[in-house]
Amino acid sequence: MKIRAAVLEEFGQPLVVQEVDIAPPKAGEVLVKLKACGVCHTDLYTASGADPSGYAPCVLGHEGAGVVEEIGAGVTSLAVGDHVVTLFSPECGECVNCRSGKTNICTAIREQQGQGYMPDGTSRLSRDGQKLRHFMGTSTFAEYTVMPEIALAKINKEANLESVCLLACGATTGIAAALWKADVEAGSSVAVFGAGMVGLGAVAGAKLKGAERIFVVDPSAERLELAKRWGATDLIQPKDGNAVEAILEATGGLGADYTFEATGLVSVMGQAVEAARLGWGLCTVLGVAGRGEKLEIIPRYLITGRTVQGGSFGGAKGRTHVPQLVEMYMRGELDLDGFVSHRIRLDEVNKGFDLMHAQDGIRSVITF
Ligand SMILES: [Zn+2]
Ligand SMILES: [Zn+2]
After folding, report:
1. What percent of the chain has pLDDT over 70?
2. Is 98 a catalytic residue?
3. Whole-structure pTM over 0.85, yes or no?
4. Which CATH architecture has domain 2-168+336-367?
5. Catalytic entry in 140, 169, 284, 321
6. Phi and psi for 5 in degrees, rounded to 5?
7. What are the tens digits of pLDDT across the range 325-356?
8. Which of 29, 37, 42, 277 is catalytic?
9. Relative to the alpha carbon of 106, which ligand is closest?
10. Is 283 designated active site?
11. For the domain 174-311, what is the CATH superfamily, name and number?
12. Which of 69, 218, 279, 317 would bridge 305 by S-S if both were Cys, CB 3.0 to 4.6 A apart?
């Protein structure tokens, strides 16, 4: 089948929206008609060539939501017409990691996915007979995608796909980190570093759990103002790039019960550790740092009771947690609509990158 897709042809160059071929789903795979897809920083990072594990040509995109169009042999948990959110982080439920109950890092298809292929080691995407690789197992900057069944979360059909597509990556990362990974306690104090979508998701999650004070740290006054919408109570524009002192001062010199880092900057990760409370402060690192960068922690911070953890996708198990978050959205508990700042067409995908560079808005969503 011929579809339109945004192809990363060459690193550092704009994506090229063009017609490509997509093969039908094989066993255990599903063809999804995309309805919406967020433009995430990871797409931009890979397109720029900065990601050392990146490859081209491939079809980018990983924050998608759509409708099941066709299922391959042996697919039992999804049917034609089901609404789904795509998962770059699958949940097979059977591998050692899935069965452990201790992690969301499923190993079932990790190796092939990392190289841009379906679990059987081949690609469903091509152009003029020449193979194109998949990206993050998702390739959702396209009218259709073929994905493994275990990498699709079945969700409520009533949900607005233009908003819940954000649960495919950024929004879930922040929200799940606060709800489940850190399991924020009611009445506690929380400090969130970075007011992009991941950080704002953590704010929303902390608010849902009943946090009493939610500090948000960001250099942009505009973004800080926005953070109030999700529950920020204290806005901090860091002096000389450091917010630790301001947080300590506001918490009687102790620090926040929970801190979340959502910037990808190791210097900020260090601040998130130092701003966590003496005795029991829990620091959750969510940003992806550059290759080779190191986080330095003075051991005294650990000895005196602080814990540091991290979580890809906020520690969320996609097929379990994403449908739950969709229900919270449907009940009006999660404001996902507010994250969508721009709606663009697939042909305008590079504009989505430009808006991100300019820090204009929170999220651009491609609608199909
Ligand atoms: Zn992402
Ligand atoms: Zn698994």
Report:
1. 100
2. yes
3. yes
4. Alpha-Beta Complex (3.90)
5. 169
6. -150, 155
7. 999 999 999 999 999 999 999 999 999 999 99
8. 42
9. 2
10. no
11. NAD(P)-binding Rossmann-like Domain (3.40.50.720)
12. 279
